[in-house]
Amino acid sequence: MRVTFTRVHEKGYAVSAEGSGIDPLKMQPAPGFDARLPHDVAHFIVENELGITGGIFGQLAAGGTANTFFSDEAKNRRKSKRRGKNMMQANRDDALFSEHAVWAVQSRWEKHDIIPDTKIPQADLERIARKFEDFAAEWSKLAVGGSVTLEWKPRQGK
Asked: Is 124 exposed, middle or buried (0-12, 13-18, 19+ CB in 10 A)?
């Protein structure tokens, strides 16, 4: 699955996903804009690096909507929405872990005063923080209308 993050205006972005076996999906507007690292990018990187198959992007890759994405091409929107809601409920623990992991890595990356405890290995935290920095360097240079596409690593899981 390919996920594209597009700067739609100075303080806003959109997310789209496409790939084999899924309807093209989008979320616009997307929440949590940051000039260096929008919130959904942090989720993508964390979930991709830690193999969180039930987080937002694992759900999208499995044909869900994570209750926030929609498709103009879905044959049955009601069925798609119900499937997304069911998938979200079934993967609640992964979704919560994803939020924790984003907070744990981002607070270290941004060097906040409050750093949450986590069981995520230090090497993983450091690797993900480097991925944040790499993305931030590219994203911060984008003009309105520019985008960055990332590839989701397929995994076995829930």
From this structure: middle
Give the start-to-end residue ranges of the domains of the chain: 2-143
CA distances in angstroms from 54 to 15, 22, 29, 73, 152, listed in the order given? 18, 16, 23, 23, 13
Tens digits of pLDDT across the chain (158 residues):
999 999 999 999 999 999 998 889 999 999 988 999 999 999 999 999 999 999 999 999 998 999 899 888 766 677 777 888 899 999 999 999 999 999 999 999 999 888 899 999 999 999 999 999 999 999 999 999 999 999 999 775 44
134 CA to centre of own chain: 16
